[in-house]
Amino acid sequence: MKRYLLTTVLLISCFGAVAQADKALAAAFKKFEADPQLKSGIASLYVAEVATGKVVFQKNATLGMAPASTQKIITAATAYELLGKEYRYKTEIGYSGTVEAATLKGDIILRGSGDPTLGSWRWKATSDSALLNQWVNAIGTLGVKSHQGHIYIDKKGWEFESIPNGWTWEDIGNYYGAGAGSFNWRENQYDILLASGNEVGSAVTVASTRPIVRSFQLTSAVTAAARGTGDNAYVYYPLGNNTGLVRGTIPVGEKAFSISAAYPDAVKEFTALFRQALSSAGIGAMKQDGRIPGYRVLDTHYSPVLDSMIYWFNRRSINLYGEALVKTIAFQSKEKGSTEEGVKLLKDHWKSKGIDVVELNMVDGSGLSPLNRVTTRAQVAILQYAKKQSWYPGFYLSLPEFNGMKMKSGTIRGVKGFCGYHRSKSGKEYVFSFLVNNYNGSSSAIVQKMYKVLDELK
Length: 458
Fold this sequence. Notes:
Number of helices: 10
Low-confidence stretches: 1-18
Structural class: alpha+beta
Distance between the termini: 34 Å
Strand content: 25-35%
Radius of gyration: 26 Å
Strand order of the largest sheet: 2-1-23-22-21-20
Number of strands: 23
């Protein structure tokens, strides 16, 4: 009887604590909504207990919101489900034609599968130098001293456009606006080194690029701003023009101020670099028009496993990886590397798990497009589902830590979001999604106010 009474008291105490937490969270969110930064904006918050699924708090939870990079948790979970945590991309190198008198008469062919890690510095085996050496050595096994033909990238089954619908002109051209194709190189990005004078308003010049770009030119309309103003320079690629334009500002007194940009054509950059690597290895190029049919595989490169890629995808919020994963899901299922087809398969998968597709109104895999609209309820449902899967440890590890919480952040103009997991001091674990659209004022200020709301889960 005493034990029963004690249990009852503990349960009442527990429910009372939960109810108190609910009230505190509701009060914090109400205060947040009344903040001047939300004068013309809207916020959505959905919080549930991990163990029971009980909704702790919800407001505007079924309203479609621009999620920015918090959308990456959806793409990551879908990739785990449809590709598997051990999935590896495969890139083959081979040749067509014949070898006669130490001359390869035919094409050197690389057949990609959408691998976003080719040439990436994040793994030793995927670095640009490692892969160039691997592929030069593969051609070297033929015993050739010259190559009479082309370097050809087989893009069969992949859509022509690397950039998905809905990306803005200001984003395309910058490192975070790198699209995904059948063959990607160095995460499709390079660095521009800018030099500024000592006077505010003076012209800024392009000092160099790293690595050297070969297929296009750059011109600068950047000006110098006051010290401490940081990187406010953006790259644009005018249509029908092979000259990129850099606009904006960088601080005064810089000799090699680095900004990162996206290749307009990563394949052209790679083929020029590979031809140079072959020449350095004593395999010179000879001109030949036309392609010779046939294909013999010399070597196959396998990417790191998906689990490892997801880590960097979420930790560094690499948009290229999200776009590659969505297209890969489509290619593996339909032999068509298409963003539209991949997003459709993503929606169909979560529909089969009970999530209404109208709550996943997505147009890309990374969340970069401002056209995306998802609900906080759908994001929490996916996070709850992930918790029960065998691939969850890798997924959880991939989430960054902000404000003492494991959560993915998202930022585009006028949009800020956080979604993830948190265990309170009392041991209760929560899953949540918090999205804010069309706020005014500084991003750093709205973030601190969002943290204050989420602090109620601690």
